[in-house]
Write a structure and sequence with these properties.
The protein contains one helix and no strands. By secondary structure, it is mainly α.
C-alpha cells in the first residue's frame, strides 16, 4: 500500500513540474512575440529616418 501512495505523489510532482514547464514556455512565446514586434517597429523607424535623410 505504501508503494502505491509514493507512486501517486511522484506522479503529482511530475504533473506539477510538467504543467509549470509548459506554462513557462507559453509565457515565453508571448514575450518573444512582443519583443519581435518592438524590434520590427524600431527597424521601420530607422528605415524611415534613413529615407528622409537620403536627399540631404
Amino acid at each position: 500500500m505504501k508503494a502505491l501512495t509514493g507512486s501517486k505523489r511522484l506522479r503529482v510532482r511530475y504533473m506539477f513540474i510538467l504543467t509549470s514547464f509548459i506554462s513557462g514556455l507559453m509565457g515565453g512565446c508571448a514575450t518573444m512575440e512582443g519583443a519581435g514586434k518592438d524590434i520590427q517597429s524600431a527597424g521601420e523607424s530607422l528605415e524611415e529616418a534613413a529615407e528622409d535623410n537620403d536627399g540631404n
